[in-house]
C-alpha cells in the first residue's frame, strides 16, 4: 500500500476531500471506509490492516477538510449518499466494498438503496437508527431534547447529553430529562457558550441521521450484500440496538464484531478499541 494521496471532488454544495491508499496490482475491489460525522483520520489504523487492497477514506461534507458551500443548516443521509455516489464514480465507478460505521452506516444504507450497482458488499456497523427501535418515540424525544439544548445552551451541555444518550443501555425513559447527564465541566467540555451552532454532529447531522428510516424494501431487493454489524461490548446501547433493528427489518441477523462502537480505531482519538481483531473480523466478512 502506498502513502495516502489526497484529492478533492466538487459536488453540489460542497468540496469533498478524500484519500486513496493504493495497492498496486490488487484484484480486490476498492474498500471504501466511511463515518459521519467522523472524518478520515478515524480509519487510519484500520486502513493499515488492509495493505493488500486499495483503501479510500473521506471527510463528509461540513467536516474537517470537506467544506460546504450550500448554506444549508443540516445535512441529510440522502445528501451524503449523493456525495458518496459521486465519490465512487470519481474513483472508478465501483462496485466497491464499503465499511461504514455509525452515521456513515446510515448514509451507506441510503447509498445502497439508491445505487446498489456501485457496492458489492456493505458492512454497516452500528447505525444509530432511532426509528427501528421498539421505544422509537422515546428515543426520538431524547434526541430532540438534546438538539433543543444545543440550540439553547450551546455545545458543552448538548455534548454531555450526547455522551449520556449514546452510553445509555436499554430503553429510554418516558421523560428525556430523566436520563442522567454528567456535568459538562467534569468531562472537560466547554462551560461557556461561544454562540456557534454549526457543529457537524449536533448542528448538522444529529436529527437527520438518527431519525432517518432506510428504504428496507429497496435494500432487500438490492444486488448488494448488506451485512449489519454490532459491537460485542455495545449491548443495550442505541447504536447497537439500531443495528439489531435494521437487521431484523432486512430479515437477517447482525454479525458481532470485537469491541465497541469505535472498536476499529487505534489511538486516533485516545479511545483505542481492538483494531487488529476488528480488521480480522471485517476481512472474514468481506471474503465470505
Describe this structure in words.
This protein is α/β, with parallel strands linked by helices and 288 residues long. It has two domains: 5-129 and 214-287, Rossmann fold, CATH 3.40.50; 136-206, no CATH class. It has nine helices and nine strands. Strands 1, 2, 3, 4, 5, 6, 7, 8 and 9 form a nine-stranded mixed β-sheet that branches. Strand 8, helix 8 (238-250) and strand 9 form a beta-alpha-beta unit. Helix 2 (77-90) crosses helix 3 (103-114), helix 4 (136-153) runs antiparallel to helix 5 and helix 4 (136-153) runs antiparallel to helix 6. The protein is globular, with a radius of gyration of 18 Å.
Please give a handful of descriptors for the protein shown.
288 residues; alpha/beta; Rossmann fold; 2 domains; nine-stranded mixed beta sheet; 9 strands
Secondary-structure topology with pairs:
Layout: E1 5-11, E2 14-21, E3 31-34, H1 44-47, E4 55-58, E5 67-68, H2 77-90, E6 96-101, H3 103-114, E7 119-125, H4 136-153, H5 155-167, H6 200-210, H7 216-221, E8 225-231, H8 238-250, E9 255-257, H9 275-287
Parallel strand pairs: 3-4, 3-6, 6-7, 7-8, 8-9
Antiparallel strand pairs: 1-2, 2-4, 2-5
Brief description of this entry?
The protein is built from 9 helices and 9 strands. The chain is α/β, with parallel strands linked by helices and 288 residues long.
Order of SSEs: EEEHEEHEHEHHHHEHEH
By CATH, the superfamily of the largest domain comes out as Alpha/Beta hydrolase fold, catalytic domain
Annotated CATH topology of the largest domain: Rossmann fold
Question: Quick one: CATH class of the largest domain?
Answer: Alpha Beta
Number of strands: 9
Number of domains: 2
* Rg from alpha-carbon coordinates: 18 Å
| Terminal residue distance | 23 Å
